[in-house]
Design brief:
There is one protein chain. With about 550 residues, the chain is of the alpha+beta class. It folds into three domains: about 200 residues, Sulfite Reductase Hemoprotein, domain 1, CATH 3.30.413; about 70 residues, Alpha-Beta Complex (Sulfite Reductase Hemoprotein, domain 2), CATH 3.90.480.10; about 130 residues, Sulfite Reductase Hemoprotein, domain 1 (2-Layer Sandwich), CATH 3.30.413. About 35% of the residues lie in helices and about 15% in strands. The strands form four sheets. It has a five-stranded antiparallel β-sheet. A five-stranded antiparallel β-sheet has the order 3-14-15-12-11. A five-stranded mixed β-sheet has the order 6-7-8-9-10. A hairpin with a 5-residue loop joins strand 4 and strand 5. The longest helix has 18 residues. It starts with 8 loop residues before the first helix and ends in a 6-residue tail after the last helix. The relative contact order is 0.10. Bound molecules: siroheme and iron/sulfur cluster. Siroheme binds next to strand 1 and strand 2. Siroheme (SRM) binds next to strand 1 and strand 2.
Amino acid sequence: MSDSKNFSPIERIKQKSDALRGTLVESLEDEITGAIAEDDTALLKFHGMYQQDDRDLRERRAEKKLERLYSFMIRLRLPGGFMTPQQWIATHHIAGEYSTGVIKITTRQTLQLHGLLKSKIKPTIKAFNEVQLDSIAACGDVNRNVVCAAHPMQSAIHEQVHAYAARISELLLPKTKAYYEIWLDDEKIADKKQEEDPLYQDRYLPRKFKIGIAIPPNNDLDVLINDLALIAIIENDKLLGFNIAIGGGLGTTHGNAETYPRLATVIGFVAGEEKLMKAIYEIVTIQRDYGNRSDRKLARLKYTVDKYGVDWYRTELEKRTGFKLEEARPFSFTDRTDLYGWRQNHKGLWYYTPFIESGRVLDDEKQALKTALLEIAGTGKANFRFTCNQNLILADIGKKDKPAIEKILQKYRVIDNTEAASAVRKNSIACVALPTCPLALAEAQRYLPDLIGKIEPLLAKHELSEENIIIRMTGCPNGCGRPFSAEIGFVGTAAGHYNMYLCADHEGTRLNRLYKENLDEAAILKELDLLFWLYRKERAAGEKFGDFALRQRWYKA
Ligand code: SRM
Ligand code: SF4
């Protein structure tokens, strides 16, 4: 356990926050600045928001001696990434009225709105609340949005597995009522006992905590990058239980050798909901008690697991739960791709997955996606399910309603756009990066689409256009677009420069390795031209790019 004398400053902010209230009310009322008090920026995250500023405008505003153009990003808590059509309609209007208007589907199956001014935060949260949506614990040192295999085609009992996402989210929600008091003007609670929190106490977790649930053989959510990964074990359409894996996480820091990406290690199997919930809860309490509270760079569960050992963690877990984990059951993943286009499930319901580049829902010259989705939601005939590949699935559509939905998708060129996108583009992910992300060192979602446009001709040249190689880009090594599990990963080092990573597998069970550093666009394309040529010439039948790269030892020694 960390020595409290060396705790990082955030630990003090959390403990003294009066259950995450801090001075948020005062900060909101302060009309002199568009920002909030510094300590409150840490607390705001627990309420699902980040203070940001437009980095494109920083220099110009500084020259004019203006304060930065502060705004806020809000992220919804959406366990398993599910929304009703009514909730989508509300989100569409909230985005238009209070934010930039672009609805961003994230790599964790939820939505973000950017560019909210301070005065618009409360109206935004109130409007979301009216349709039973909230942003509680979407960020901060708590359990975040619980993600789950997205497509109902993945299993006949998808619904049963998917329901665990909401249950786990509920189990691990902080007990404080601060969110309701500050943003929704609920009365101050008189009896503080009501918010006593045996799980988080007043210290919360040392760092963010992420949980994902996979349904093999698809691994659309990259389950093993989560702090806690659950793998549903299903036999003959019956849920036997879950394999439990711990210690996944991708964030690293350039130049800090103590940080590294890690895939979760499977520690056993649990059958039955009661035992599962107990195991999840206690995995979190162990991290609460043993996680590093001095150095936030080393505070994720992966470092706790490696510091104390996997066996120690399992033993401690068994001590706390009072039962032993069973031996892990065999499972395998075959893919991470979203199931694009129309699909029908075993109940005869229809699903349409459009390709949404970098998860940005807007109308542009290619398609009027945002308008189409509003019109579809208006029919009330499709639910909205989000994927960890930054797409959405128009879901649960009855046979008789399919033609009407298809007509709308065609009218606004959504089907054309999805069908025209190449395999490599459909498999790509870019994080937000500039201009809103304060940590970005280089572009990602504003640049990857163009780069892919230059990679596509190279693939065509080498007759590889049908290959669905997984390419991901992030603006820094925090890994929000999961670049370290991409077959080709680009990680920003400075404006226009990226480290290139190769050798991950296609299924999300092996991380990649550093291949070359600080490449600019010309160097990236030159490298890829050569690598694709070799891949085309020398690969074994059916061999995936990442496997071939590993066989060729395309990594820095
Ligand atoms: Fe992330 C921080 C965006 C998924 C690892 N992430 C951030 C912040 C909030 C920057 C900040 O701290 O101020 C970014 C906001 C940018 C913006 O303007 O919106 C940000 N992360 C995102 C999203 C929106 C990327 C996207 O384009 O979809 C994803 C939102 C997920 C969600 O809905 O909750 C997002 N972030 C991830 C993932 C991928 C995943 O979980 O599947 C990772 C890697 C997995 C992991 O956690 O290890 C990830 N984000 C980080 C880290 C590194 C954490 C670490 O352990 O070192 C940071 C930095 C931090 O926490 O200090 C970070
Ligand atoms: Fe920002 Fe870095 Fe995350 Fe991209 S990977 S959103 S640049 S923190």
